[in-house]
Each structure stands twice: as structure tokens, then as C-alpha cells.
Amino acid sequence: MSEARPRPRTVQEAAEELGLSIHTIRAWIAQRRIAHIRLGRAVRIPPAEIVRLLRENTIPADPMP
């Protein structure tokens, strides 16, 4: 048996997961701010890229005094 790999997300799925608009995701793709896979006309976002965006843009809470 092979190890199951998470499948790449469509632009709409990535937008929903990140709570952003499809327009924003497409703009980031055009600006190369987000890694993507192009298969002909189809565009997919690797799940690891969504995790990277969340990790790099998370601002930690201040510790309570």
C-alpha cells in the first residue's frame, strides 16, 4: 500500500480554507506570492503551501502579565 498524500486544493478550496476571496488567491498566484501547480489551465495549491501561509502569517499572542 502506498502512503496517502493530501490532494492539492483548487483555488476556491484554498480561498475557503484561508478565509480569503478567490480574487485574492488569483492575485497572489499572479504575483507569485503563493506557490501553485499548473496542469494545463487548471491551477492547484499544494496543502503544504496553505500550512506555510498560516504559519508565516500567524502573530503569537502576548503572554499575560
Q: Could you walk me through the main structural features you see in this protein, from its secondary elements to its overall organization?
A:
A hairpin with a 2-residue loop joins strand 2 and strand 3. This protein has a 3-stranded antiparallel beta sheet with strand order 1-3-2. Helices cover 42% and strands 14% of the residues. With 65 residues, the chain is of the alpha+beta class. The protein is globular and about 55 Å long. The longest helix has 10 residues.
Share in helix? 40-55%
> Could you tell me the strand content as a percent range?
5-15%
Average of per-residue pLDDT values: 94
Task: Give the H and E element order.
Answer: EHHEEH
| Multimeric organization | single chain
Provide a count of the helices. 3
Which short descriptors sum up this protein?
42% helix, single chain, 65 residues, alpha+beta, three-stranded antiparallel β-sheet, globular, 3 helices
Concise summary:
The protein is of the alpha+beta class and 65 residues long. Helix content is 42%, strand content 14%. Strand 2 and strand 3 form a beta hairpin.
